[in-house]
Specification:
Thrombin, subunit H; alpha+beta; 2 domains; 10 helices; OB fold (Dihydrolipoamide Acetyltransferase, E2P); 31% strand; single chain; elongated; 478 residues; six-stranded antiparallel barrel; disordered N terminus
């Protein structure tokens, strides 16, 4: 999960589908409703059957033989070369552009496993591409489990070569186990990467230190197992298999932490359980017009957060400001943080050369009021709790309080670090704010750009990702 997406800096936590417009997929709840044919059948009467001629019988036999000759051979993948034949590339036209994801064949009925956030973007115009170049239509959705981000889809017709992946693995993989990830990272088709299992942990353990972790977006069960690996995965790997050295699926690649460079896969046992209780009855695909634009999540692409789009007006700017004032600039939920983030994006847009003068004037007036806020520790803590986890999608607003690390000369910019994280930000600016001494805290209302680099943080052994934030509204705070 090549793509028609706009380039975007990688978020701390992100789903692994590539969406037109940057970032990842929606997690749209699809209820378990079974729809399809009524199951009725018709048969000839006994009298008609007795009237069948020898010639028609022979014709039927020949037809059966021809049908058998045309039926594709089915095999289970035993090698990584075999695995290639089982992988599909989802090509999903959406209002935001082409969305890409990964899936893999799991039975001879044309069932394909993937992530729910990939399946949720599939319309009747969707296609899957095989390694051979063959493109196939989708018949519909067999089943989804949103809280595990799993889905099973069905092909209208089987490919000419049917290779299935083994999904019977039930063990807890050991630390250090060699694994392989297969998918289409950033549209680089049918690509394999190698790594090891670095941790196996539950949802509860994931969210213990990060209450707004991405898995909370799908309401994942506290005891659900996630396999952490350093096998390289990127947007475009969503729904692809994580394999052991015997080419068995041990997990379904679901999301990643870009800062730590780890990917996370849902244990395959949940997929096997879903397969065992599913039937061939289908949830129909939506029409193309019913597909919602791909969305960003609350904590790293996911279900409820739209892709960043800035529609600025005086009314919207004032409304966002008033809403933040009501909760005293202390967000208690992710939605409240995004009120502030949207306000920051609109503020920044209001300073662009093409912005109407009345909008720029209002933005300046509102920021003057922001300077009068006390900005105590409770506000700073509340803001940074969410700022440390939001996806870094280009064009998204961001509010955070960071510590000054120094400044760069070309271009002139402040170098900031978000406390408690290795996250570094460069904010091009000018004027007196550039003289803020190292160690001071700065409140930033800005917008994430697509520029990403690396830099060394004192005390950190490895270079860290540096993101560029565009901001015209910086404020030193105590």
């Amino acid at each position: 999960m090549a793509s028609k997406r706009k380039k975007a800096g990688p978020p701390p936590w992100m789903w692994l589908a590539v969406a037109g417009g940057g970032g990842a997929m929606a997690l749209i709840l699809v209820l378990y409703g079974w729809f399809g044919s009524d199951g009725s059948s018709s048969s000839g009467t006994v009298a008609a059957a007795k009237m069948e001629t020898t010639a028609s019988k022979e014709a039927g036999k020949e037809k059966d033989k021809a049908s058998k000759k045309q039926a594709p051979k089915v095999k289970i993948a035993k090698t990584l070369d075999d695995v290639t034949e089982a992988i599909v590339k989802f090509e999903l036209p959406t209002p935001g552009g082409m969305t890409l994801g990964t899936g893999f064949l799991i039975n001879d009925r044309g069932w394909v496993a993937t992530n729910n956030h990939v399946a949720s973007q599939a319309s009747a115009d969707a296609r899957v591409k095989m390694y051979t170049g063959q493109k196939l239509e989708l018949a519909g959705i067999i089943a989804v489990v949103p809280e595990r981000d799993l889905a099973i889809m069905k092909l209208k017709d089987l490919p000419t070569q049917v290779t299935l992946l083994d999904i019977t693995y039930r063990d807890r993989p050991k630390i250090g186990t060699t694994v392989f990830a297969y998918g289409h990272p950033y549209g680089v088709e049918f690509s394999l990467s190698k790594g090891i299992v670095s941790r196996v942990l539950t949802t509860g353990e994931l969210v213990a230190d990060q209450p707004a972790h991405i898995v909370t977006e799908i309401h994942a069960a506290a005891d659900a197992l996630w396999i952490q690996t350093d096998a390289k995965i990127s947007p475009g790997n969503s729904g692809g298999p994580l394999l052991d050295e015997n080419s068995r699926v041990i997990g379904i690649n679901t999301f990643l932490n870009v800062q730590a460079m780890y990917g996370y896969a849902s244990h395959v046992k949940y997929l096997k359980d879903l397969v065992d209780k599913s039937t061939d009855k289908l949830i129909p695909l939506k029409s193309p017009s019913e597909i919602q634009p791909p969305r960003q999540p609350g904590h790293g692409p996911g279900p409820d957060r739209p892709q960043p789009q800035i529609a600025v007006s005086k009314e919207k700017l004032q409304q966002a400001f008033d809403a933040a004032v009501k909760f005293d600039w202390k967000p208690a939920t992710l939605n409240e943080y995004y009120v502030m983030a949207d306000f920051a994006a609109m503020l920044t847009a209001c300073k662009q050369p093409q912005a109407p003068p009345d909008l720029t004037a209002l933005a300046n007036q509102l920021f003057a009021k922001i300077k009068e806020v006390g900005w105590g520790s409770e506000q700073v803590t509340a803001i940074n709790q969410y700022a440390s986890g939001v996806p870094a999608a280009t064009g998204r607003g961001m509010v955070f309080v960071a510590t000054t690390m120094g400044k760069s000369q070309s271009p002139e910019a402040l170098i900031l670090q978000l406390p408690g994280t290795p996250s570094l930000y460069v904010v091009p600016t000018s004027g007196e704010i550039l003289n803020t001494p190292p160690g001071r805290r700065v409140l930033v209302f800005g917008m994430i750009t697509g520029q990403v680099g690396k830099g060394q943080v004192p005390g950190q052994p490895q270079p860290q990702i540096i993101r560029v934030i565009h901001s015209d509204y910086l404020l030193p705070v105590k």
